[in-house]
Amino acid sequence: MSELINVNADGRALTLEFAWVGPERASLQGEAAEPLVFLHEGLGSLAMWRDFPEQLCTALNRPGLVYSRPGYGRSTPRPAAERWGLDFMHLQAEHVLPALLAALGVTGRYHLFGHSDGGSISLIHAARCGARVASCTVMAPHILVEEFGLVSIREARRAYLETDLRTRLAKYHDDVDSAFWGWNDIWLAPEFPQWNIEALLPALACPVLAIQGVNDQYGTMAQIDGIAQRHADTRLLKLPACGHSPHRDQPAAVIAAGQLFFASLTPA
């Protein structure tokens, strides 16, 4: 069951939905007590992860923190008239996530696990605020805008207006229009092709595991290859017969890769 917590981020009072999963933090010591923080996709929420965070954290024997960003799930909705700018992921990485961690008493090291927009936010956070980030796992992250992905985002807009997509998403968001239009409007804004975080990647100071499906409809391998080109301590996993959500398409492969990755972080 998720909980709610009030935080102040970037001068705004926000209510954020969160849940702890996996082993109890209090029962673990040392590196095993360092939580894994999950950051969801652009249309996601805490609930849309389903039981994957619990499965992964149990396999890694460490606690997990899952939350819904503002505008999603049970968190503070986006005001109807508010339009996100090119810095919307930076605001989440540099203000909202640090405020949540502080409010929950996470004062030591932690690991990031981000999907899609959440992967991009993880990379920005690790590059800009990352002295305490022990590792960063990203699935289908975005480091630049590709026309290939924008085609799928335009199709998502059509589906939201013409099919049952809105009804299906409404199960996971208190204000489904807040979630959908916040994401879709900025990604399809005329200025959005300027968005790019490649210049931040050399500032990463932690190991990175970057995962992408070969059949991802929102991005090509240029996304994770670009991370490896700019950050030497990057492991790549390219999954055949896999789309934009590796944790749903091939959860066992993602968990196995996570176990190998975390084993490599632990000194012998």
From TrEMBL:
The entry's keywords: Hydrolase
Highest taxon in the source lineage: Bacteria
SUPFAM superfamilies to which the protein is assigned, alphabetical: alpha/beta-Hydrolases (SSF53474)
GO molecular function, a single term: hydrolase activity
Secretion signal, residue range per the UniProt entry: none
Keyword Hydrolase: yes
Entry keyword Hydrolase: yes
AB hydrolase-1 domain: residues covered: 36-257
InterPro entries from the UniProt entry: AB_hydrolase_1, AB_hydrolase_fold, AB_hydrolase_sf
Any one GO CC term of the record: membrane
Designated name of the protein: Alpha/beta hydrolase
Lineage, top ranks: Bacteria, Pseudomonadati, Pseudomonadota, Betaproteobacteria, Neisseriales
